[in-house]
Hints:
Blueprint: E1 3-8, H1 12-24, E2 27-32, H2 38-45, E3 49-53, H3 61-70, E4 79-83, H4 88-97, E5 101-104, H5 109-121
Parallel strand pairs: 1-2, 1-3, 3-4, 4-5
Amino acid sequence: MGGRILLVEDEGNILEAITFILSRAGWEVQGHGNGATALEAVGRVTPDVLVLDVMLPGRSGLEILRDLRATPETADLPVLMLTAKGQAKDRETAMELGANAYLTKPFSNAELLETVTRLAEAPAGTDGG
Length: 129
């Protein structure tokens, strides 16, 4: 498939692993590790898909997601929330805020690739699934 992905993840080993998985599948991956400057990174990178951790330094992924959905330029950006927080309430909150998909760590490589590809191929404003 391919396309541009912004991966907002503060854990270096996870960032490296996901970058490897997605790059090998043909994606151009930009990594960013700070929640406080993540919105600036979105504006700079203009990704086709945003993979966003929930627990980040500086600002939570949920706060970032809320701001993305409130901004016309990023309101339809496909967002995959990727987190260690696997409780139903966390998933519900993310989906209510406008996440297009939600994966919990650990996840399978195939599951990650399938989800990112589905989000990238979906028409704007849908969850593709």
